[in-house]
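Marked as duplicate of an earlier ticket. Keeping the data here for the record.
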Amino acid sequence: MRPAPPPLMLFAAGLGTRMGALTATRPKPLIEVAGKPLIDHALSLCDGAGITRIVANTHYLPDQIERHLAPRRIPISREEPRILETGGGLKRALPLLDGNPVLTLNTDAVWTGDNPLTQLLTAWDGARMDGLLLLLPPGKATGHTGTGDFLMDATGRLTRAKGAAGPVYLGAQIIRTEGLADIEDEAFSLNLLWDRLIAKGRLHGLMHNGGWCDVGRPEGISLADSLLSP
């Protein structure tokens, strides 16, 4: 029997400030692309990958997201009084996730091609990895601005790009979480944990087999609609 997939953390706490007026009265995960909220696109990926244990964090306009997720009985890690960023948010939610490693998925993007979560689950090798990040070259990452985030060697091991051309992190990963206990800050980015895994040679990357669009800015909505159009 195939083992159950690890639990998944949906990052849904962001302020959405780059969206301007669109997030004045609703949180970014509830903005619609191709006729449904962004967070429902993320949940469809979870369902397609057979993931049954899902936790979401909230902070900005949390009641709206929590009402939206209530029919699915998804546990909520509400971040108050301040937002805890990706690392602090994941650390806060660990008791609800009850698993290691965990998947994490941002809720401000849409995907085409192979299910990104299934790709991660298939490629995960805990004997040599403590983290596996899904990536694309900058030229294929629709809506992304700036340079790449990492360099990847022939074995998939990641180092920091440091201004060089390299692939972009797409907001989907599998990661072991025990290293979070060594970070004393309450609010911090997962970049801190990634850098520690890089130093150990334990952070790896995987190229996404499909398309992706960042919906972090208003113009990303039309780009995402076009990507998802038949």
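See parent ticket for discussion. Helices lie at 38-48, 62-69, 85-97, 116-123, 191-199, 219-228.
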